[in-house]
Structures are given as structure tokens and as C-alpha cells.
Write a structure and sequence with these properties.
By secondary structure, the protein is α+β, with helices and mostly antiparallel strands. It is built from 5 helices and 9 strands; from the N terminus they run βαβββαββββαααβ.
């Protein structure tokens, strides 16, 4: 698979754009942040798809843009947003996901009945044909492809260690099995 080319097999993580500022950071600086404490288990995906919240006014509750993932690293919020040194989460760890240019979808994927979600894994073929977020939920045989891809990515993921005494090393196979329960953190 060529990087930066969306294919039917591309692994996609749908993420939140809470504020227009987050959109501008992604567009101009080429990165997106996810707090480690609430991050999905696998962030080594091919693309991010950006779900725009109510803060986007007339362009709310939709996915309009995607970006190819170029890599990721673990850092602190303070290192990412130096203009907020006194933010309550300044010393918290965040994934900094480096991304390519934002690409506008030919037609937005609308929320439909869903208005809130945290993270959602999907595949390129679902994103390319989706009208609503519900259409992104991987079904049947393709679901096996999604979980296989997540298992492979989990086994390749670099192990990040924090200062948290509750950190536990988990077998990648077990981690992938857990993803089936935790990856669809969605409120309908």
C-alpha cells in the first residue's frame, strides 16, 4: 500500500475536532493531538478522519477532511501548546500524530443520529461510500480485516512508558482482543 493513497484497505481512525483551532493546527502545522489517558489502543493508522463538533457551526457533526498519518510520538501538552503553560493538563502526556495535508472528501459524512463519539476505527472502502457515521461501522467479513490490521499494528507499536505506577505491559494479541470492546467509544 502506498502512503498517502486512500485505498479500500486503508486503516482509518475517526477522531474529534473539538474546536476550529484544532482544525487550524492540523491544517497549518500538520499534527493532531490525543491525550494518552483517553487514546485508542492503536494510533499507527494510515489516515485520520476528522469529525467536526458543534463548534463548527454550519459545518458541524460531519467528517469533511482526512489526512494521511506520517508518524506519531509521545510528548506533553506543554510541548505541543507552549502558549498554554498554565493549562491544567500541561504536564499530561499526549500523542502527537504527524499528518500530511488535509484532503477534503468529495462529500461529507454526516452524523445522522450520532452526535457524539470518541474514536472509531474504519476502513477506506467504508469511508469512501459512507453517507452517515453509521455507515462507517465495519460489518461482516471486512470486520475480520479490520481487527487483523489492528492486531498487526498493535504488535508493531512502540511501547511507550509513563511514570504511572499502574502501567501494565499487555500482550499485543490480548490488546487487539480488548480493542473489540473498547474501540467504539460512541454515544448515540
Amino acid at each position: 500500500m502506498q502512503p498517502n493513497i486512500l485505498t479500500p484497505e486503508s486503516l482509518i481512525l475517526v477522531v474529534l475536532l473539538n474546536q476550529p483551532r484544532d482544525f487550524e493546527i492540523a491544517r497549518l502545522l500538520g499534527w493532531y493531538r490525543i491525550p494518552l489517558r483517553s487514546a485508542p489502543k492503536v494510533v499507527a493508522v494510515d489516515f485520520l478522519a476528522f469529525y467536526q463538533t458543534a463548534a463548527f457551526g454550519t459545518e458541524k457533526w460531519r467528517i469533511q477532511y482526512i489526512a494521511a498519518v506520517r508518524g506519531h510520538e509521545l510528548t506533553t501538552r506543554h510541548e505541543l501548546l507552549r502558549d498554554e503553560p498554565d493549562h491544567p493538563n500541561a504536564n499530561q502526556e499526549y500523542y502527537k500524530i504527524q499528518i500530511g495535508p488535509l484532503i477534503s472528501l468529495p462529500r461529507p459524512v454526516l452524523a445522522g443520529d450520532w452526535k457524539r463519539l470518541t474514536f472509531l476505527y474504519t476502513l477506506g472502502e467504508y469511508l469512501l461510500s459512507a453517507n452517515t457515521l453509521n455507515d462507517l461501522v465495519v460489518q461482516s467479513e471486512e470486520r475480520k480485516l479490520l481487527w487483523q490490521s489492528l492486531r498487526e499494528r498493535a504488535s508493531l507499536e512502540q511501547n511507550y512508558h509513563t511514570e504511572d505506577a499502574n502501567d501494565v505491559n499487555i500482550d499485543p494479541g490480548l490488546l487487539a482482543a480488548l480493542l473489540g470492546i473498547q474501540s467504539l467509544g460512541i454515544d448515540h
